[in-house]
């Protein structure tokens, strides 16, 4: 009996050791080895951190040439002082990896289409299909071109190599105990960092910012509605003024013209007879969120209290944890720069030097075209181009799948780029083949542009640096200690004929490609305008005097006007005034639309709940503050109205018209045919559809209050905003109650918003910076600096960021030295 009990206990012990030391999958969700994960000495408990220094002083690190001083302020922001450039970027890679390694690797895996290696195929093959989409869009293809470009330049080759060495030096220090939490949760280990990963990060940002297009949607709209209706729905330029740059006296250059005769008529350009007989039925890959945008501006010293320029920048992007940006200062002979970096890429992306400051917003320009390709036969070995059958390049993509067999996909490459959609991916009707042309596939070296910006001393240096910048296209705001302010819309922009770039193109003619690009010195720019400020907020870039044709998926119509109206009315500006403007919740869209909406209601026929809602809206001050109930009712009304108006477009590959144009059509053309609701026998006009949307929105609000046990609906509660973890695991979300919304200067929607708020005063006595972002410096959930800036960001608070000039500066919390 004793022997039996012994072997029984032994079997149970062995079984438990086996079970607790291997990963499992439960309901398609990965479960790490529970024993190791819960180990109190080596498991996730080991990721808990004190608030003090996490890097030992006098840390010996192979690869350094001299000692590097790293000073940390109260936010755990590192100020790196090195004695040479190589050590500076090595230390940046090392320190950034210490705080953000898992984020860096996860984001580059996502960009390269390699998430199946970490997560598996996902429910319904969702992860696999995401990865396939990334490969078919050519993200790695673009990064490889960028890598060749940066490696051809000795400066960028050196800084990327040293940054990579620094990341790998940190990886070499890790064991299971010190692995970041997510590696333990997902049960895998980091792989060596490479320069390609640095390039992938920039291409991932380009995907977020410059991959929106509407070619197929516009082609469908042209086929379904005709050109006149299409122009009414999607005008190139909406009837709202206030461009980024206004040059009423015109431009002093001779524009580039194409050799071919400009095409003015839409049927000539898109060749209507060759368009598909039926609407295109491609199930398109998700594009960037339409709430993605940004604000930036610079005010001349003539309008500030100090007499020095002030520059402000807040890029609006998806809000994630760990945070998108990593703030730091880089100091070495010839460089002293500070601001926001992208974890995984060397240098500062948005920030200042001791002489200038700069910030960016998305330029919104159309830098994507789609081409329908004709293959010779089902083998797809040759496609038609200029009357010849040209060889296709065939790439077999291997997807390593965690806990499963590998998956293989064949991607065809043409003169235009990868064939993204075909009979195996995205096509829902008869097999068609659509090739993808994207400006970010072209070789470019943005690292060199930022390298020079990080060392710029004046406006000339800023212009010289931007000459090297191509993608993603951005509006670069500038200010200097010398007193200059400027704006430049910079990117590599194709010269387009009228209407070109809006529709699906015939891939059998190379003449349909980009045959010329706007020269750098003819890009849109302005310096020291008479009004005393420059600004951009994703609006139309320029007035009608600019000689080049401009098109995009959409331009912003509200934030920019609110910013300009406010700046025009301010004098003796202080940094506090700019903080107030960056966090401004005034809803200009509501100011211009709500009176018209309320006028459409029939007060006598409203239910008691509707009467109450109407009164709340009548008395609302038009601010989307987090405590505002009027904001909740207005946004609910708007969210009910848009689907009712554009119900004809549901289920089709079509683009819904913009917010501004929708309101414009409601006011100016109230009997427009699209206002008729398809599913009702009546023929509705603007008035009826507004009323119906109001009734629906009030009913939805009453249900929301009932479901949440609330008697009111404060906007911060109703919006239900959160900052999600990159794993998309719901338990790791952090919920927040914030004001603002899309179309508002404080552009915080439910999951998007100002990812980095920065204000810089360019004073001759010393540059001063204030900043905050939604998260914290550490990527470790167990760190005091994981989300320590999140609530201050919600509350509109800022931190003074010390811009150090000497490692002995006293404005630090702790310091450490890295040694060779």
From TrEMBL:
Active-site residues, as the UniProt record annotates them: 294 (nucleophile)
Entry-linked CDD domains: Ntn_PGA_like
UniProt binding sites for Ca(2+): 366, 368-369
Keyword flag Hydrolase: yes
Keywords: Calcium, Hydrolase, Metal-binding, Zymogen
Keyword Metal-binding: yes
Biological process per Gene Ontology, one example term: antibiotic biosynthetic process
Coiled-coil features, chain-numbered ranges: none
Any one GO molecular-function label of the UniProt entry: hydrolase activity, acting on carbon-nitrogen (but not peptide) bonds, in linear amides
Family statement drawn from the similarity comment of this UniProt entry: Belongs to the peptidase S45 family.
Protein name: Penicillin amidase
Organism annotation: Chryseolinea serpens
């Amino acid at each position: 009996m004793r022997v039996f009990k012994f072997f029984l206990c032994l079997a149970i012990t062995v079984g438990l050791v086996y079970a607790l030391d291997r990963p499992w999958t439960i309901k398609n969700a990965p479960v790490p080895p529970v024993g190791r994960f819960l180990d109190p000495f080596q498991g996730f408990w080991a990721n808990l951190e004190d608030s003090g220094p996490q890097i030992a002083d006098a840390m010996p690190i192979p690869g350094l040439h001299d000692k590097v001083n790293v000073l940390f302020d109260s936010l755990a922001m590192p100020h790196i002082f090195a004695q040479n450039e190589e050590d500076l970027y090595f230390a940046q890679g090392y320190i950034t990896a210490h705080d953000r390694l898992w984020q860096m690797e996860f984001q580059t895996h996502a960009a390269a289409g390699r998430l199946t290696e970490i997560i598996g195929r996902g429910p319904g093959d969702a992860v696999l299909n995401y990865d396939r989409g990334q490969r078919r869009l050519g993200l790695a293809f673009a990064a490889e071109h960028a890598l060749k470009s940066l490696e051809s330049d000795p400066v960028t080759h050196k800084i990327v190599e040293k940054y990579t060495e620094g990341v790998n030096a940190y990886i070499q220090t890790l064991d299971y105990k010190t692995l970041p939490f997510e590696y333990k949760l997902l049960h895998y280990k980091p792989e060596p960092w490479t320069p390609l990963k640095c390039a992938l990060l920039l291409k991932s940002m380009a995907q977020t910012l410059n991959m929106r297009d509407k070619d197929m949607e516009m082609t469908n709209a042209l086929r379904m509605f005709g050109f006149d209706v299409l122009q009414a729905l999607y005008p190139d330029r909406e009837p709202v003024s206030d461009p980024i740059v206004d040059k009423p006296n015109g431009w002093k250059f001779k524009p580039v013209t194409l050799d071919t005769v400009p095409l003015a008529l839409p049927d000539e350009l898109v060749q209507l007879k060759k368009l598909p007989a039926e609407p295109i039925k491609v199930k398109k890959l998700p594009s960037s969120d339409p709430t993605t945008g940004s604000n930036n501006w610079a005010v001349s010293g003539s309008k500030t209290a100090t007499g020095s320029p002030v520059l402000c920048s807040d890029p609006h992007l998806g809000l994630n944890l760990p945070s998108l940006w990593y703030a730091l200062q880089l100091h070495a002979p010839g460089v002293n720069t500070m601001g926001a970096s992208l974890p995984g890429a060397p240098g500062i992306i948005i920030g200042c030097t001791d002489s200038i400051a700069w910030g960016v917003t998305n330029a919104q320009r159309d830098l994507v075209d789609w081409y329908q390709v004709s293959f010779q036969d089902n083998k797809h070995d040759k496609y038609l181009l200029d009357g010849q059958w040209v060889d296709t390049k065939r790439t077999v993509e291997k997807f390593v799948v965690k806990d499963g067999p590998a998956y293989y996909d064949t991607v065809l490459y043409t003169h235009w780029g990868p064939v993204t959609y075909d009979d195996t991916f995205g096509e829902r009707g008869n097999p068609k083949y659509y090739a993808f042309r994207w400006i970010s596939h072209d070789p470019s070296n943005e690292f060199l542009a930022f390298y020079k910006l990080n060392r710029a001393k004046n406006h000339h240096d800023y212009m010289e640096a931007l000459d090297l910048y191509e993608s993603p296209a951005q509006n670069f705001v500038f200010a200097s200690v010398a007193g200059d302010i400027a704006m430049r819309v910079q990117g590599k922009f194709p010269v387009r004929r009228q209407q070109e770039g809006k529709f699906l193109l015939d891939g059998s003619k190379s003449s349909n490609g980009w045959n010329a690009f706007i020269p750098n010195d003819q890009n849109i720019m302005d310096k020291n305008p008479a009004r005393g400020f420059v600004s951009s907020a994703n609006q139309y870039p320029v007035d009608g005097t600019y000689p080049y044709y401009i098109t995009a998926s959409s331009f912003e119509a509200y934030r920019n006007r609110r910013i300009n109206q406010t700046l025009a009315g301010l004098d003796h500006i202080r940094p506090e005034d700019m903080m107030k403007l960056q966090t401004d919740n005034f809803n200009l869209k509501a100011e211009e639309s709500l009176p018209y909406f309320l006028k459409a209601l029939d007060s006598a026929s409203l239910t008691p709940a509707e009467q109450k809602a109407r009164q709340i809206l009548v008395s609302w001050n038009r601010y989307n503050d987090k405590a505002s109930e009027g904001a909740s009712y207005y946004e609910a009304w708007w969210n009910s109205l848009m689907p009712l108006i554009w119900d004809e477009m549901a289920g089709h590959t079509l683009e819904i018209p913009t917010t501004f144009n929708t309101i414009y059509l409601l006011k100016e053309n109230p009997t427009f045919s699209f206002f008729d609701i398809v599913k009702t026998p009546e023929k509705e006009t603007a008035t009826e559809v507004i009323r119906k949307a109001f009734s629906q929105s009030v009913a939805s609000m009453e249900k929301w209050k009932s479901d949440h046990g609330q008697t009111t609906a404060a906007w911060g509660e109703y919006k239900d905003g959160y900052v999600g973890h990159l794993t998309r695991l719901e338990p790791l979300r952090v919920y927040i109650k914030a004001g603002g919304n899309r179309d508002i200067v404080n552009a915080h929607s439910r999951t998007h918003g100002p990812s980095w708020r920065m204000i810089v005063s360019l004073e001759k006595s010393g540059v001063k910076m204030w900043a905050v972002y939604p998260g914290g410096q550490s990527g470790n959930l167990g760190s005091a600096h994981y989300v320590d800036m999140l609530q201050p960001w919600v509350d509109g608070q800022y931190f003074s960021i010390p811009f150090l000039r000497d490692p002995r500066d006293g404005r630090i919390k702790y310091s450490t030295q890295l040694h060779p």
